[in-house]
Amino acid sequence: MIIPLSITLAIQILATMAALTVPVLAPEAARTTGLPAALVGVFIALVYVGAMLSTLASGNLVGRYGAIRVSQACLLLSALGLAFAAVGAVWSLVVSALLIGSGYGPITPSSSHILARTTPAHRMGFLFSVKQTGVPLGGALAGLAVPPLVLLSNWQGAALAVGAACAAMALIAQGVRADFDADRDPRRKVSLGGVLRPLAQVFAHRDIRNLALCTFFLSAMQLCLTTYLVTYLTVEYGASLVTAGFVLSLSQFAGAGGRLLWGYAADRWKAPNLVLCLLAFAMAAASLITALFEPDWPLVIVIAVSMVFGATAIGWNGVYLARVAQLSPPGQAGTLTGGTLFFTYFGVVLGPPAFAALVGVSGSFAAGYAGIGGVILLVGVVLLYVELKGKR
């Protein structure tokens, strides 16, 4: 159980770091390219367009080639995407986002396929949450490592260095492929009908469908935090790039701790839906407070709020993924996870650009955090109503 958890966690960390490297580089890249830093939201949206499409194909790809082989291909796509990002042109950034997204989409379904086979049912919430700490840890690593890499070379060199790390992880994963891909079926066909089937399966399971629709909004909140926090803190709060990256990394570490805590709570209370409801209220409050940041606020308060924001807005994923795996028929966890992630990633596609549009209209990143906080507050009210209605 330790080996599959370790390898899937490491792959998740590198894939997430690749996806968040460009947002961390955005202020410096904007200075040298002349592109508005707020357009990083469009970049992230394109990343998740690629992820939306590739995650639907992940079930068939994992079935035919194996979860580790698919993960290796994903890491190499991320590395290639970062190489295109280093070119610094609009067209290359579009290609970069789509390549990174295509690599990011199948990572979680692949790991769910492995963990569903190796994890006892009563420990799924916690162990899936442990694996999902790879997302905030990858974000923390981006926040900690990328700014110093920029100082050592330039923003292009930092992007290439992260890409090289992804390629190295793909090579390391080869050592466990024989064991973890033993259930692959080389005769399995990959077709358009097979790609669309996960969506039909999601809608055939009411509880899984409801989870998928819920994560549409929660994922939008998560990516608005991770995409814009560095730029918000540098542009409006007045922090340096290194300080803003450090705050982002602390929010990501808090998200990792939150994932463990919420996963444990969901297993202990046997109430994953209630946990998601409470998290919606908490992340809404944190977002609204973030919108109030002023340059004269003590850094320690900004850090504390950002860590609460990270613990909640980043901490929900493990609870959700474990619940999908628990509700899925035997052998279908990867396929149904891919189907639900289509909706999760769709929230990311729409969320950051909507945030960017609000910033453009208002001229303030604070307005963006206030807007998304209000939306999630309404989501929390709806989740609470559904939870109370279900217990009548």
Automatic annotation (TrEMBL):
Superkingdom of origin organism: Bacteria
Q: Give residue ranges for domain Major facilitator superfamily (MFS) profile.
A: 1-392
Q: Which UniProt keywords apply?
A: Membrane, Transmembrane, Transmembrane helix
Respond yes or no to whether keyword Nucleotidyltransferase is given for this record: no
Q: Name one GO molecular function term.
A: transmembrane transporter activity
Which chain regions cross the lipid bilayer? 37-62, 74-100, 211-235, 241-262, 274-293, 299-322, 334-359, 365-386
Give the protein's recorded name. Major facilitator superfamily protein
